[in-house]
Amino acid sequence: MHSLSDIVSMGFSFIATKLFYPGATLVRRPFHIRQKSNLRFEPGFTTGHGCRFEMFDEGVIELGRNCRIGDNVHLAALHKITIGDDCLFASKIFISDLSHGSYGREGCDPRTPPNDRPLVGSPVTIGDNVWLGENVVVLQGVTIGSGCIIGANSTVSRSIPENCIAVGSPARPIKAYDDETGSWVPYRAEG
What we know:
InterPro entries: Hexapep, Hexapeptide_acetyltransf, Trimer_LpxA-like_sf. The protein is mainly beta. The chain has 1 helix and 22 strands. It has one domain: Hexapeptide repeat proteins (UDP N-Acetylglucosamine Acyltransferase, domain 1). Strands 1-4-7-10-15-18-20-21-22 form a 9-stranded mixed beta sheet. It has a 6-stranded parallel beta sheet with strand order 2-5-8-11-16-19, with no helix packed on it. The protein has a 5-stranded parallel beta sheet with strand order 3-6-9-14-17, with no helix packed on it.
């Protein structure tokens, strides 16, 4: 049962949602956004409290139908973050398509302050029906296939195929859905 202050807060958030985010179901306050014009969402979009969406330069965040996002989720886009339909995100998730500097063979000088290093990155794509657990981190250039479940506290630093359960840091698939048996089976990489 909600307390009176929760009910008042939810009512305020509902009114603000209808005024500032028409088409969304509920954007709970506080909600911090940089470059609101670069946020695109389909009907059914819902957030928890304390979410932060940042679009840098021409960065875009696109959310499909019925995306439900928990409390304190941070999305940061230099290029593009695309999230499919019917996704469920727990709380304290970080998704970013960017990094302060490049750290390959000819990367940034470690004597340069991180905030002075150039922003670099590549798009992030999350398919339909994806469930991200608590404290998941999704890094630049990653694709998470439709139907995936990413376990709590995982760091997704490389792409995950469709219909997999992935866990760990870095996240690795441990189970895959078998259409023939209708069950989850141990994951076996193709090839």
